[in-house]
Amino acid sequence: MIYRETGQFRTSYAEDQAIFRLRQDKIGIAVILAIAWIGIPFFADEYLLRAILVPFLILAIAAIGLNLLLGYCGQISLGTGAFMAIGAYAAYNLALRLPALPLLLDFLLAGLIAAAVGVVFGLPSLRIKGLYLAVATLAAQFFADWAFLRLPWFTNYTPSGSVTAPPLDFFGWVADTPREKYFVCLAFACLTALLAKNLVRSRIGRSWMAIRDMDIAAEIIGIRPMTAKLSAFAVSSFVAGGAGVLWAFVHLGSWEPLAFSIDMSFRLLFMVIIGGMGSILGSFLGAAFITVLPIFLNQAPGLVGIQLSTAMVSHLEFMIFGSLIVLFLIWEPHGLARLWQIGKEKMRLWPFPY
Amino acid sequence: MLATVTPSPPPAPIAQRQRAIGEVLLAVENISLRFGGVRALSNVSFDIRKGEIRAIIGPNGAGKSSMLNVINGFYHPQEGRILWKGRARSRMRPHEAAKGGIARTFQNIALFKGMTTLDNIMTGRILKMRASFIEQALYVGRGRSEELRERDFVERIIDFLEIAHIRHTPVGKLPYGLQKRVELARALAMEPELLLLDEPMAGMNLEEKEDMCRFILDVNEEFGTTVALIEHDMSVVMDISDRVVVLDYGKLLADGTPDQVRDDPAVIAAYLGVAHG
Amino acid sequence: MAELGPLLEVVLGGLMSGVLYALVALGFVLIFKASGVFNFAQGAMVLFAALSLVRLAEWLPFPLAFLLTIVIMIAVAWAIERLVLRPLVGQHGLILFMATIGVTFFLDGFGQTIWGSNVYQLDLGIPASPWFLLESLFPGGILVSPIDVFAAAIAGALVLALSIFFHSTKIGRALRAVADDHQAAQSVGIPLNRIWLIVWSTAGIVALVAGMAWGSKLGVQFSLSLIALKALPVLILGGLTSIPGAIVGGLIVGAGEKLAEFYIGPSIGGGIEYWFAYVLALAVLLVRPQGLFGEKIIERV
């Protein structure tokens, strides 16, 4: 009854093109933002902020990055972790070697460096399709893993290979408590979501989707496949690189190359598939799901009195992720985001079934 | 130019249509196209004049679609040349042909299935948009104003083709006839000088065919768009086209007005020899 | 002559591990040829087969365990065909590929849940101590591992058997027809589902052989699943649809990475093997997208 559009008329195309068209949606997003910015920091304890919400927000950003490439442009990547690593190590080296630069500029430059490398590894996409591209992006993953492990310049010749981020100093404001770090991540997540949404509803986003849906038809309406694909690689890698900086600087603090292994790439792929390909909201839902499920698996059996070994929990996680991927691909390729939308449609028509 | 759209009257007989058929817009000269050892086109020449409706007919496998693919840059003929507005065109990709003013629909609909009707048609305006990356990301300046301007333009095409009710529907969910119409809308959104239609009426029922005929004639008359179309339904071809090219086994069989072509003994032989359709 | 010895040893060692890559790649090619599915789960199938065999062999005589594992792999193939492929028939290749990633994770987790996740020794009765060849020609001779030789022999036999199977049996001809054109094959009455089941089962058996070869070399453990990642560049190199391509690609990658490690490795920190195959495959992709032996992709509009 509450979720109705009756009586709401859009009198201009500007209103019809708004991100949230219905009044209820506008109220809904306002409530969510209020909870995220005011409610959570007020009530959440340190553990929740540090161990769940901060990683969730950063992974959501990375998932948006991958979603722009996979969900919107239809180009698969199994190397998102590599682009996160490139962002993280670029920012580390910029902060280390050019201490005069403000941290925010380091972040931006690190994203641009990741974008440039992304374009290089996206080049094969011009000649090859889907499956082959998976191999090209895996090449990026393995090469990055190796480079940050074996080329000591990147890790400033630290004997262990592990590096530590500088303090999070944003023009004098230092984020060092979990709450402050949460705000940093939240700000970046909101910004990324907004910019990504704007891109996908503009010319560039439409040209990505056109390439995704039918590249031949895209070409006849004047889209240059090269520009469309490489711009998707660039933007996606930029966002992934930025997420990598946050993962390293805000979440981990100190990290090793293993932090961005192929495991991370797969995890992000799962977030996008389960959350919903081609949906910004889905990136958040997927990130939330993949972050919370392992914690749930660790805690839930204990609560009902069953003791599972760590190995068992990890195997269970593998099986659940694997089956969910298959199930979502078969039944709802648009993921949780689509389920949410279907739920809303039902509400709109309720109590009538049609 | 779309501002003057009015509900269109039923199509008038060809003789009464007030149109000026102008100079040669596109000429294909001695085109030969081979795939491996298979000859798809051999030594085909004809022209398309500004403002006319030009039909390309022929039995299945005659090379009609290959001809369209040559014209919009998908295939590159081994021999012959293409003159666009009197100038020989170099080897070009389809997106360059699009920039040059050639739009096209496909025999098996080539829409973007995951996008709505509106977004599909908006893609036709991509070449008209100039907003920078930053403007698009922030949805400010030209990023916003262009979206609204082009939306306005696209809405007129939507009205013109009477598809306003399916604006926000993903095209994958539309019935076949409407998908064909959306594909035409996307091509029109490009404001092409030459519109290539590959069997625009295939698989339609009579009513849908009549609608489509009306749209093609309206487009041609009101916007002066030159149309080249492949069609199997002879009555449609004879009704709406100004001149007809007949292809058979990759060769030019006849070229002339519908009446001339209809009476051509070679055409009659080809059509009697091969199952009609 | 003195430098030639180590070089020959490196090349030979590389070729031997190349054969092992080829074994995994072979499973990919089989499935891709017949069903157009790029089966990421091939590596997981290798792990699953090896785990089943090694754990069953603890209870049963080896030949019986071997036969039972074949039955298990056919059951796995059946389940994948029924539960994953059939509902996704006609979907975009990318969707199918991602579905096989899902299968990979499920099989990895499932295999380790029922069979355990330790390192298990697989003893095929092959002597572990290396052989020294050509001692008369080179000082110290050339060191060759018997397991590698055994694996190479098995791989050779397998390729031979598959070629005969493909070219001389009725099922083989049907398979090739399906590979050429699904719809045409279906229209002449070839039951697609059964063909897929046969292909996936064959791939399962190839996975078992690969699992035995790798397992006896490295021990049966989770890392076997990751071998699939090494087989991907092999595939790209050889071409997705070519069985000889998989073999030659495997040999090139095997020998190439060992040589690169031997010559360039020390100067840039080592561990080149980790990415060499991928960068090689990437280079090949840019020059010749269909791979060395693959069919050229002609796009019709």
Topology:
The complex is a heterotrimer of chains A (354), B (277) and C (301).
Chain A: H1 13-16, H2 23-43, H3 46-72, H4 80-97, H5 103-122, H6 130-150, E1 163-164, E2 169-170, E3 173-174, H7 178-200, H8 203-213, H9 215-220, H10 225-252, E4 254-255, H11 262-275, H12 280-303, H13 310-331, H14 335-349
Antiparallel strand pairs in A: 1-4, 2-3
Chain B: E1 24-35, E2 38-49, E3 53-57, H1 64-71, E4 79-84, E5 87-88, H2 94-100, E6 102-105, H3 117-123, H4 133-138, H5 142-160, H6 176-189, E7 194-198, H7 206-223, E8 226-230, H8 234-240, E9 243-248, E10 251-256, H9 258-263, H10 265-273
Parallel strand pairs in B: 3-8, 3-9, 6-7, 7-8
Antiparallel strand pairs in B: 1-2, 1-4, 4-5, 9-10
Chain C: H1 4-35, H2 42-56, H3 62-85, H4 93-115, E1 131-133, E2 142-144, H5 146-168, H6 170-180, H7 182-187, H8 192-218, H9 223-238, H10 243-263, H11 273-287
Helix pairs in contact in C: 1-5, 1-6, 1-8, 1-9, 1-10, 2-3, 2-4, 2-8, 2-9, 3-8, 5-6, 5-8, 9-10, 9-11, 10-11
**Helix share bin of chain C:** over 70%
* Large-scale geometry of chain C: globular
Report how far the terminal alpha carbons of chain C are from each other.
Answer: 58 Å
Q: Which stretches of chain B are poorly predicted, pLDDT < 50 over at least 5 residues?
A: 1-16
Count the domains of chain C.
1
Largest interface: A-C, 46 and 48 residues
The tally of domains of chain B stands at: 2
Mean pLDDT of chain C comes to: 82
Describe the sheet with the most strands of chain B.
Answer: 6 strands, mixed
Question: Which structural class do you get from the secondary structure elements of chain B?
Answer: alpha/beta
Q: What is the CATH C-level name of the largest domain in chain B?
A: Alpha Beta
The chain-level mean pLDDT of chain B equals 87
Radius of gyration of chain B: 19 Å
Give the second-level CATH assignment, the architecture of chain C. Answer: Orthogonal Bundle
Give the N-terminus to C-terminus distance of chain B in angstroms: 37 Å
The CATH topology of chain C? ABC transporter involved in vitamin B12 uptake, BtuC
Percent of residues in beta strands of chain C: under 5%
CATH homologous superfamily descriptor of the largest domain in chain B: P-loop containing nucleotide triphosphate hydrolases
In the CATH hierarchy, the third-tier topology of the largest domain in chain B is known as: Rossmann fold
* Number of E strands of chain B: 10
Count the DSSP helices of chain C. 11
